[in-house]
Amino acid sequence: MSLQVFLNDRLVPQEQAMVSVFDHGLLYGDGVFEGIRVYSKKVFLLAEHVERLYESAHAIRLVIPMTPTRMAEAVEQTVAANNIVDGYVRLVITRGAGALGLDIRKTSHPQIIVIADTISLYPEKYYEEGLGIITASTIRNHPGALSPRIKSLNYLNNILAKIEGTDADCQEALMLNHKGDIAECTGDNIFLIKKGVLRTPSNDSGILEGITRNCVLKLAKEAGIPTEEVTLQRHDVYTADECFLTGTAAEVIPVVSVDGRAIGTGAPGPITRDLRARFQKFARGG
Ligand code: PMP
Description:
Number of helices: 8
CATH class of the largest domain: Alpha Beta
Oligomer: single chain
CATH architecture of the largest domain: Alpha-Beta Barrel
Shape: globular
Strand content: 25-35%
CATH topology of the largest domain: D-amino Acid Aminotransferase, Chain A, domain 2
Radius of gyration: 19 Å
Bound molecules: 4'-deoxy-4'-aminopyridoxal-5'-phosphate
Number of strands: 15
CATH superfamily of the largest domain: D-amino Acid Aminotransferase, subunit A, domain 2
Mean pLDDT: 97
Structural class: alpha+beta
Low-confidence stretches: none
Distance between the termini: 32 Å
């Protein structure tokens, strides 16, 4: 069945949803995006995603020709038009078509694209048994070159690390920052639990400030679990009692080994299980 895609100002059949080959989103990865979940027809944490989208755009000096309120409406409209009950929304803003060359003054009409579709999830066994991951040799972008806090269309940094993970038969790969500290995985944030304290790299560690990450931190605080946003090293990962990843697609997923070393008991731990259950309850309307 053909999807209805929101393009700039209206819904069009997916066959007619096209952008120019001169679009700088294609030519240079010049644009920003968001991935958002839909649970039981409700768009999850939409305001937070729209806010991060506009912050990313502002950081690359891209003026989105639409108000945040209208953007949120466009997302809702696209989800409803495609009868999405449980699914995924991809919101993309490109710089628009322009001359060959980097000068943004020679581009016009940023393109606004909203795609709502179903989502393929990690198989259930990974949630029950946990993931084994490796540390990639590719480091996360230096914040002075391209801030990881910008969710830009330029994902080659993450793709190169993801390839390393795939080559090692892993679903995810851990990325260090330019200082050698823990940053995040290619499409997920990382959390550790040590002696009952939940720890995750701080925003100055070279991470995307994940919306799932922030939600899990909040749920943990509400549950009385002490939390810390700090600098973490590989040693902290290897010696953690528990480890898990968070992301819009993955939600909360346990990690049981890193670089061939078992984390904790080598099985998903109790705090990870508890936070996963709390997150699922929150997301699915508990
Ligand atoms: N880090 C990176 C690099 C990501 O691309 C993502 C999103 N897939 C995340 C972390 C998790 O962010 P969120 O919880 O907002 O999906």
